[in-house]
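User: Can you help me understand a structure? I only have the sequence.
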Amino acid sequence: MASSAVEQVRDANAKLRLLISRTRSSLAGRCNFSAGDVRAIAEPVGSVQPIIDEAATLRTTRPDLDAELETYKQNLREVQVALEQMRVMLMARRAHIESARGHLATLSMWNATLRLTR
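Assistant: Let's start by predicting it. Here is the structure, written out as tokens:
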């Protein structure tokens, strides 16, 4: 299990790095971020959970696992920062959309008033 544990954590780290890159691209406006991306982030995190539960035991026998778990921890921090930035960006977009809706409602009322005066 120890060897497969190292491979599982390496695989999760590779997936997380790709997802971090995708999230940053979304923040830069180069691609879209969807609920599928959130689910994609949850998959490698969930797959490593059983290893995390046994980490204290596994770290003593596999020093290479220790390094991978440290990388995993760093990746999780980066994911957390990227998701927080995404949350802020989505809140700003929502505020912009609400503002645009209010503007459209005002224009609609002006248009209706204009039609009544003609």
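Now, to help you interpret it: Helices lie at 2-27, 35-53, 55-61, 63-117. The radius of gyration is 23 Å. Let me know which part you'd like to focus on.
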